[in-house]
Amino acid sequence: MTLNEQQALLRRLQREQAAGVLHAGVDEVGRGPLAGPVISAAVILDHRAPIEGLADSKKLSESRREQLCDHIRECALSWAVGRAEVAEIDRLNILNASLLSMRRAVEALEVTPDRVLVDGNRCPELTLEMTCIVKGDSHVAQICAASILAKVTRDREMVALAEEYPGYGFEQHKGYPTAQHRESLRRLGVTPHHRRSFRPVAELIADD
Asked: What angle do CA 79, 83, 89 make, to 5 degrees?
């Protein structure tokens, strides 16, 4: 999609929203980590209660994400979280597991949207009308909200996992393949929460 085509799409979506069409934004977090689930969120914002400061979750500080997450849960017309667990990631591959988590998030919404706006270039399997938007978490408020909700939810889970498995540093790297994480894997071994289909983990298991 060219820049002009994307701008035209965004203008059309704005007109739909002004006409009362319900848009659900969907985004996922957790494709890259070596451990933990992939988590998606779906959010339908209430135009009567706009939320200031929505942006791509990666561009916000942790404290700001936490504040906005609570605000989204309080003010959104509907929101839901979907997930795919480590066993599903290893069985399906990370792309298909991510799409599954998106589908589960949308299906868990208490309000049925008229259109689902998905961040990226692949849509999950749904009977609803869907539109993929590359870098949608930088342009579409509903997707920004979903991005924030998904990231805060997953980060909180990884902090809790750090208490169960001390020494891995999950509270810091959130499962991503940092040097600290790789070193702790070599030193402490693979936990049930690590993705065995991911190369660094698979190689460690093979060496053992």
From this structure: 155
Four-residue CA torsion sign, 196, 201, 205, 206: positive
What is the fold of 3-156? Nucleotidyltransferase; domain 5 (3.30.420)
Phi, psi of 2 (to 5 degrees): -75, 170
CA 184 – CA 79 distance, rounded (Å):
36
pLDDT in tens, the chain (208 residues): 677 788 888 889 889 988 889 999 999 999 999 999 999 999 999 988 889 999 888 899 999 999 999 999 999 999 999 999 999 999 999 999 999 999 999 999 999 999 999 999 999 999 999 999 998 888 899 999 999 999 999 999 999 999 999 999 999 999 999 999 999 999 999 999 999 999 999 999 887 6
CB burial of 90-111 (b: ≥16 within 10 Å; e: otherwise) equals beeebeebbbbbbbbbbeebee
